[in-house]
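Task: sequence design from structure.
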């Protein structure tokens, strides 16, 4: 989401005449697009405070702005605000909510006397600002922002606010434009894509609005791969499951967050689904595509997590062959339900040990999953060429690389014969 929002910020700055600076030392403007889903991400932002003070001393023209999840509607501007962010980072000059990106030109006009983005100021939603595409082939398109679920650990509903969905016509126009410019992989982003409810969905369709959108995008010429993040097991319907194996562009990979393999822990997390529901979805997806790659999220050491509850998470990963887990140690976020009503009582050492156990379990599954590709030819969409290797993802979202220095491969699809599966990556040779 932040990656996609940054592309919209870049468009606004470019329209105003800013050019990309060569590093922080040579820039007159720095904008931090922040994440605070984990405490470590927030701390990293505060860690920049001292760096910025040094930069400002060398360049008095430098202005520093901040946006993203750390900024909410009451943050306001320096001088009017007692917010933590201004208190802890006195070098910040201004802050804006990402949904107020349309007002950035006015702020910068006052600070740097830059002009030239009048049309942006008149837009009704920041989604209407076209992103500056940094990768022509793979594009990230937000379909919604905000969340109506209040998972006990999560700060997103307090920072991004309630769900706001883009109209389908607007999204399809953006996809169409991108496809004409060469995009072939669309990544839809939103806090809960299954809860997508635009004003212009077909009310008579048997499909949910999200399934309608997927069908329409599949029909756009040039689109080969569709991915989306993130799914909520409570809202994911069979209509979306049905599209796997039916639409050519639905890749054989899904990110299906579970957070915990224990029903009692899920209840405390207020996730509003059961482990059985998650398993049912995984089973149905494997009926459609037996070899589908399933990734998930797990939080270790959530309030009150017992050894038994944790073991259920480990077992789920092994039993359901979850080949990629985004695992995080629970960290308290201010004002969430867990912060106010539950006790962060699992010691840090235990959270860490459980983190490592999950990583170990995932590694075993991942190696086994990757092994099946040895000797096969896979299609790789090249994302980067560095340190003597060209690398990118196969449809199953696994990284594959081969020796090459050819920078022009970025954005190209290359057929690769896999020679060996390493721990996290496939290695092979391109074939004609
Ligand atoms: S679904 Fe839960 S975890 Fe995801 S953004 Fe909403 S509140 Fe946060």
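Answer:
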């Amino acid at each position: 989401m932040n990656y996609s929002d940054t592309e919209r910020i870049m468009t606004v700055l470019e329209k105003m005449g800013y050019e990309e600076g060569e590093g922080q030392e040579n820039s007159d403007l720095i904008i931090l697009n922040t994440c605070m889903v984990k405490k470590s991400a927030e701390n990293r932002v505060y860690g920049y405070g001292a760096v910025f003070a040094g930069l400002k001393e060398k360049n008095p023209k430098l202005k520093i702005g901040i946006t993203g999840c750390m900024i909410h509607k009451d943050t306001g501007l320096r001088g009017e605000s007692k917010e933590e962010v201004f208190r802890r980072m006195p070098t910040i000059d201004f802050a804006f909510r990402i949904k107020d990106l349309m007002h950035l030109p006015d702020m910068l006009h006052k600070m740097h006397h830059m002009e030239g983005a009048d049309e942006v100021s008149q837009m009704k939603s920041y989604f209407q600002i076209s992103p500056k595409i940094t990768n022509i082939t793979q594009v990230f398109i937000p379909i919604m922002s905000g969340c109506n679920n209040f998972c006990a650990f999560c700060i997103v509903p307090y920072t991004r606010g309630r769900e706001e969905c883009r109209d389908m016509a607007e999204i399809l126009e953006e996809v169409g434009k991108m496809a004409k410019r060469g995009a072939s992989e669309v990544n839809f982003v939103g806090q809960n894509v299954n809860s997508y409810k635009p004003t212009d969905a077909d009310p008579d369709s048997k499909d949910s609005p999200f399934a309608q959108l997927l069908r329409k995008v599949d029909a756009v010429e040039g689109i080969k791969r569709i991915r989306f993040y993130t799914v909520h097991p409570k809202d994911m319907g069979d209509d979306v499951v049905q599209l796997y194996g039916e639409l050519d562009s639905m890749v054989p990979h899904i990110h299906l967050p579970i957070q915990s393999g224990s029903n009692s822990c899920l209840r405390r997390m207020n996730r509003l689904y059961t482990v059985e529901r998650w398993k049912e979805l995984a089973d149905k997806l494997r009926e459609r595509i037996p070899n589908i790659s399933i990734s998930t999220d797990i939080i270790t050491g959530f309030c009150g997590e017992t050894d038994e509850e944790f073991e259920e998470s480990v077992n789920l990963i092994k039993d359901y062959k979850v080949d990629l887990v985004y695992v995080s140690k629970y960290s308290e976020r201010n004002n969430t339900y867990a912060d106010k009503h539950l006790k962060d009582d699992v010691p840090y050492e235990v959270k860490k040990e459980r983190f490592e156990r999950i990583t170990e379990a995932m590694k075993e599954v991942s190696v086994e999953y990757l092994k099946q590709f040895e000797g096969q030819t896979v299609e790789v969409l090249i994302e980067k060429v560095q340190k003597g290797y060209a690398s990118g993802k196969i449809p199953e979202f696994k990284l594959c690389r081969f020796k090459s220095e050819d920078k022009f491969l970025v954005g190209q699809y290359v057929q690769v014969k896999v020679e060996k599966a390493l721990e996290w990556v496939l290695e092979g040779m391109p074939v004609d």
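The domain at 377-430 is CATH 2.40.50.140 (OB fold (Dihydrolipoamide Acetyltransferase, E2P)).
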